[in-house]
């Protein structure tokens, strides 16, 4: 896996664990890319292990490309699967992650994918962006592990003002930038709560700013924010159009109703979608605040939608078909 946090967990560690626990496969997880240990096996180790499938996620570094070339040449019978969860060659200009991806990123992804028999991606736009890189591309959306997310509820403690919030990683500068006037305009009406990234310009208006937590602690920490309303703003660009609906799934699993940008990945969810216009966001927030019963009902509706359609144990057959040779 590329890491042991979000991408690694959602796109490799979680699916392989549930497939293994259900007796459908036998799997062995190599160290993460972030590990100090060697994270790719030697050819001799693969010969001894004799895996049916060798699965890599976000694997386009020099190390990956060199070893993939060796595997393709010396072990052609091992079915190689390349996983990709973002259009990493279209990182937004304002994203802190952009500096980690060079101008040759698309060429690297193309090379890595071409050395594999199949690619597994999260969304159709990613599949479209990778057309021609590998012949066989399967779309398997993100889903949530029931053991982590299936039994969470907001606390609903007494409060003077409703709690409105956002949770996410540090690369969302552009996504949060346009809501600054929204937060400013409503800071006296609601308590704004942020977890993970909270841009300096927002901090003056924010009631609580919580640090990011480890993946294993994240579901409970998200529920502990005790939000009455969550927001999911996304800057309009190619990268975000290709994203999954994961943020809505996480919010929904803990029963939070959501106001979200009207963008492709959020189109089919039971959330309030608005254009990226500050006045539209302000109006939507005030509408939710002034009808708390309807707002909480929307949170329950989203939670039921997530639990009924987007849990990993409901999609193991899709993962199995995508991972194994036809």
Question: Can you walk me through this structure?
Answer:
With 326 residues, this protein is α/β, with parallel strands linked by helices. The protein folds into two domains: 150 residues, Rossmann fold (3-Layer(aba) Sandwich); 163 residues, Rossmann fold (3-Layer(aba) Sandwich), CATH 3.40.50. 40% of the residues lie in helices and 14% in strands. The strands form two sheets. A six-stranded parallel sheet has the order 7-6-5-8-9-10, with helices on both faces. The chain has a four-stranded parallel sheet with strand order 1-2-3-4.
List the helices and strands and how they pair.
Layout: H1 6-21, H2 43-49, E1 53-57, H3 62-74, E2 79-84, H4 105-114, E3 118-121, H5 124-129, E4 136-139, H6 146-149, E5 163-168, H7 173-177, H8 180-186, E6 191-196, H9 200-203, E7 208-210, H10 218-224, E8 229-232, H11 238-241, H12 246-253, E9 258-261, E10 272-274, H13 278-289, H14 292-309, H15 316-323
Parallel strand pairs: 1-2, 2-3, 3-4, 5-6, 5-8, 6-7, 8-9, 9-10
Helix pairs in contact: 8-13, 12-14
Element order: H for helix, E for strand? HHEHEHEHEHEHHEHEHEHHEEHHH
CATH topology of the largest domain: Rossmann fold
Examine the secondary-structure arrangement and name the CATH architecture of the largest domain.
3-Layer(aba) Sandwich
Instruction: Give the C-alpha Rg.
Output: 21 Å
Binned strand content: 5-15%
User: Based on helices, strands and strand pairing, what is the structural class?
Assistant: alpha/beta
Tally of individual helices: 15
Q: Report low-confidence residues grouped into runs of 5 or more.
A: none
Strand order of the largest sheet: 7-6-5-8-9-10
Count of individual beta strands: 10
Shape: elongated
* End-to-end distance: 23 Å
Return the CATH class of the largest domain.
Alpha Beta
Instruction: Kindly report the name of the CATH homologous superfamily of the largest domain.
Output: Glycogen Phosphorylase B
For the largest beta-sheet, the strand count, sense and barrel status come to: 6 strands, parallel
Overall pLDDT score: 94
Structural domains: how many: 2
* Helix proportion: 25-40%
């Amino acid at each position: 896996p590329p890491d042991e946090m979000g991408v690694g967990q959602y796109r490799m560690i979680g699916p392989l664990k549930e497939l293994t626990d259900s007796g459908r496969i036998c799997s062995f997880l190599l160290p993460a890319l972030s590990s100090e240990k060697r994270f790719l096996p030697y050819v001799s180790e693969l010969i001894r292990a004799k895996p049916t499938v060798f699965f890599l996620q976000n694997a386009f570094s020099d190390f990956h490309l060199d070893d993939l070339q060796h595997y393709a040449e010396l072990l052609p019978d091992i079915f190689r699967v390349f996983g990709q969860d973002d259009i990493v060659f279209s990182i937004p200009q304002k994203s802190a992650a952009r500096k980690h991806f060079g101008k040759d990123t698309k060429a690297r992804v193309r090379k890595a994918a071409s050395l594999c028999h199949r690619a597994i991606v999260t969304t159709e736009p990613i599949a479209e962006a990778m057309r021609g890189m590998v012949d066989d591309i399967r779309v398997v959306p993100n889903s949530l592990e029931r053991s982590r997310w299936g039994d969470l509820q907001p606390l609903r403690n007494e409060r003077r003002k409703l709690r409105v919030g956002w949770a996410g990683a540090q690369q969302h500068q552009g996504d949060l930038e346009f809501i600054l006037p929204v937060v400013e305009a409503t800071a006296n009406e609601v308590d704004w709560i942020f977890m993970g990234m909270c841009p300096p310009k927002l901090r003056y208006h924010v009631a609580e700013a919580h640090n990011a937590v480890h993946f294993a602690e994240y579901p409970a920490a998200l529920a502990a924010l005790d939000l009455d309303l969550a927001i999911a703003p996304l800057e309009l660009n190619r990268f975000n159009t290709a994203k999954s609906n994961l943020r809505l799934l996480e919010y929904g699993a803990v029963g939070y109703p959501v106001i979200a940008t009207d963008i492709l990945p959020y189109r089919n969810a039971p959330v309030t979608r608005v254009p990226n216009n500050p006045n539209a966001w302000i109006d939507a927030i005030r509408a939710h605040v002034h009808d708390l019963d309807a707002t909480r009902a929307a949170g329950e509706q989203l939670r039921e939608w997530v639990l009924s359609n987007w849990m990993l144990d409901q999609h193991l057959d899709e993962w199995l078909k995508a991972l194994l040779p036809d």
